[in-house]
Amino acid sequence: MNILAIESSCDDTSIAVINKNNVLSNVISSQPIHTDYGGIVPELASRAHINNISSLTLSSLKIADIDIKSVDAIAVTSEPGLMGSLIVGSSFAKGLSLKYNLPLIPVNHIEGHIYSGCLEDETLEFPFISLVVSGGHTSLFLVKSYTNFETIGMTKDDAAGEAFDKIAKLMGLGYPGGPVIDKLAKEGNPTEYDFPRSMINTDDFDFSFSGLKTSVRYFIQKNFEFPLKEKDKQNLAASVQSAIVDVLKHKTYKAAKKYKVKNIVIGGGVSANSLLRNSFLKLEDKGYKIVLPKMEYCIDNAAMIGFLANKKIEHSDNKFNNLTFRVSSRPMRSK
Fold first, then answer.
1. Distance from CA of residue 320 to its chain's centroid?
2. Residues 221-262: pLDDT tens digits?
3. Domain boundary assignment for the chain
4. Going edge to edge, which strands form the sheet with 13-19?
């Protein structure tokens, strides 16, 4: 079965073609225009999706070496995300479904990240702990099957990626801030400044990063003048990154121990962070299997949407011929 998958939940337009577990193509187009505004502008994101989605679909089909008549089903991100962006993708998908009489499978974007480890590693077995960490989401899930998972922890305020971006802005580094902080941190001292590890010792698996952002703001105002010196940027970046990663790793490890699960999957844009990846890989010395997606599967991508759509078809009697579903910006809960 060939599945044409469409992802447009935020500022990346992505089209993929999936055949079972095989990624035949996975085209991603980012939107650099948001850099000028220091963050994503929803209206501009929607317009860019409109401009890109048709040509990217043609490119993805060409790379996969098939035509639209060889497609057996269409998958599309339906939630959560920016409403305008989701509407562009879902409307385009519904149009293709009607024109070519194809089943249409709506897929939750976060579920895509949850199961991205299964796309990466076919030997991955259930159950596993999945940490989804990105600009808009930081959550922990106990995943029991393709149709059964439980949300065991969520951020109370800022997501980890959001904290990276906001702190980078405080440091005058521009947007997106995560990759810049990661690069600077490699030359800095992670113990130079002691920033708070919020909620690291609570009994639950929830997160909070707004306090870290506030702490960094006041610390910079009290101790530095702009523009920041390069070494100060490096030490601040390393100290901030260490604080965020320490919390993410501690909570995830604690969840794995509580639920007696030896498999851990990390998904979402922040999973591209080098310190996070290296820190989690050290858990392999404790007998844990750590699955980290390739860089192209860390960011928002249609491959994970098509992969999960295929699993939904396999594990459901649903014919997926109902085109009345609506997109939603609301965050996901348990399932």
1. 25
2. 999 999 999 999 999 999 999 999 999 999 999 999 999 999
3. 2-113+298-314, 122-296
4. 22-29, 13-19, 2-7, 73-79, 104-108
Helices (H), the chain: 42-64, 83-100, 109-114, 116-120, 160-170, 177-185, 210-223, 230-258, 274-281, 295-298, 302-314
Whether 77 and 86 have beta carbons less than 8 Å apart is answered as yes
DSSP classification of residue 139 = E
Q: Is 122-296 in the same CATH topology as 2-113+298-314?
A: yes
Give the Cβ contact number of residue 30 at 10 Å: 16
CATH number of 2-113+298-314: 3.30.420.40
Nearest to 3 by CA among 24, 21, 17: 17
Q: What is the pTM of this model?
A: 0.94
Q: What is the CATH number of domain 122-296?
A: 3.30.420.40
Query: How far, in Å, are 171, 183, 186, 211, 273 from residue 233 at the CA level?
Result: 7, 11, 11, 20, 17
Place of tokens 């980012």: 30
DSSP conformation class of 318? -
224/217 Cα distance (integer angstroms):
11
Q: Distance between CA 83 and CA 11 in Å, rounded?
A: 12
What confidence tens digit (pLDDT) does each residue in 21-56 have?
Answer: 899 999 999 887 887 777 889 899 999 999 999 999
Distance CA 135, CA 268 (A): 8
> Helix or strand or coil: residue 156?
coil
